[in-house]
Design brief:
Length: about 120
């Protein structure tokens, strides 16, 4: 997960990995906890280090952009993003996340939800 600066990924905030991804299924990838700020945009980054990665998107108007890092042969995600090729097709990528409840939060876990109408963080 990257922070955003001027409409592009910027600084790496957290990272996770999995070696047990299943095709055509939701896959869980645990990440190191970090704080989210309401109303702030974040970027997901995907990196396949041992093969190819595929993910689902739905193209249409109103979606965001996808972009590649300027360096194409990475073995780990860099701490700072350098924008390479940008794909402005308006795609919607599906993702879901949940967090850890702390003593100052209510019983509901924070949730990240992505749908065709927007990206929402809530608790």
């Amino acid at each position: 997960m990257y922070s955003e600066s001027s409409g592009h990924p910027d600084t790496l905030l957290t990272i996770g990995s999995s070696t047990t991804l299943r095709a055509a299924a939701w896959n869980t990838v645990p990440v190191t906890p970090f704080s989210l700020v309401a109303g702030t945009r974040y970027w997901f980054a995907l990196l396949a280090t041992g093969g190819n990665i595929k993910f689902r998107q739905r193209y249409g108007t109103g979606g965001g952009i996808d972009e590649l890092h300027a360096q194409q042969s990475m073995t780990s995600l860099p701490s700072t993003w350098i924008t390479g090729t940008i794909y402005a097709g308006g795609a919607w990528t599906s993702a879901y996340g949940s967090g850890v409840v702390t003593a100052t939060q209510t019983a509901a876990s924070p949730v990240l939800a992505v749908n065709p109408n927007g990206l929402n963080f809530g608790a």
